[in-house]
Amino acid sequence: MDLDTAKQELEEFIPHVRNISDSSIRKMAGRDLTRFKQFKKQGIAVKFGRFSQKENNQIRKNVEEFLSITGIDSAEKLLFTSRYPEDKETISRLKAEHLFCEKISEGIPRPWRLIYYRARKMFDPNNYKGRYTKEEKEKLKKYHALHGNDWKKISEMMSRSNLSVAMKYSEIKSANNYGPWSKEETQKLMHAVEEVIRKRMEMEDANSLSSSEKSHRDLSIDREKLYQKLPWTEIEAKVGTRYWRQCKQKWTTILTKKMTKGQQLYRGTKGLQAKINLIKRLYEMKVEDANEVNWEELSNTIGDVPRAYVQAKFYKLKVSCVPFWQKKTFSEIIDYLFEKKLPELEEKL
């Protein structure tokens, strides 16, 4: 298939395909196009964004089946073949013979490349090693000075995943503060957020709307724009002294305080009631994965707050109340909270 035809056919499934490099388009035409067409016949759309629990389980199943078929003895060898130079030739031959690309993406309506990256993240034993020690941070800075952004090489030297070392370096590359925010920093953050929101709104094409429609539109979306999908790395650069995650957390705190007029919604009896309501609502939703939860809808279980605030409270709840929560599925966590923690909270209230 020639490049223009590939672009034209892929555009039906991936609207932004013309922004992708020619080499990636050629790979997608070979690995993805036939699958996308089959999914279309079944009425299934191509997906992007976060993977659901169902998709993660399908990846596990695909990897386990491929290991069983080929006799390769670990997912790490299959997905990180370069770590095993003595077995590389044999593993590469088995992957080619048994159609690795097709097998690993079976039953998942996503581009192959995203499925492969997700599988590598799930099965990388170097990906779940906890906090970095001071010695590791110093090593990371030293290796970056020697090898730049060659995260693959640095990850092998540190026995951490590519993603982990890249994200950690982003966090420590500048002399960020970790204590309380100063007034100057808070002002910088508020100005930075205002700047990116204004810039985004100016870029949006609202010419087709009448003045009354535009007024109504602004009223209905302004608040949403205050906390959804903000470019936090850009905001981090504008603030200058804080890591992007700190900026996001601080902004959520500022918004929550403004939206609730400074009320303490998660303390004392109000806090107990909020936790009870949150657990009950999550249980009633009967969803299998956190990605399926409408956090916006859940915000009124606590009060008039941003959804990030609700997500943060749920995270603290599961970490503090659910033993071995990392090994449980989302629905198992909710069941545990409902069956074990809820009666305790109600009695305490």
TrEMBL record:
Q: Which GO terms describe its biological process?
A: termination of RNA polymerase I transcription
| Domain Myb-like: residue ranges | 124-172, 173-255
One Pfam family for this entry, by name?
Answer: Myb_DNA-bind_6
**Superkingdom of origin organism:** Eukaryota
Q: Which residues form the HTH myb-type domain?
A: 124-161
SMART domains given for it? SANT
Gene Ontology molecular functions: chromatin binding
Which is one Gene Ontology cellular component term of this protein? nucleolus
Check the record and name the Gene3D superfamilies matching this protein. Homeodomain-like
PANTHER family, A to Z: TRANSCRIPTION TERMINATION FACTOR 1
What protein name does the entry list? TTF1 factor
Native organism is: Fregata magnificens (Magnificent frigatebird)
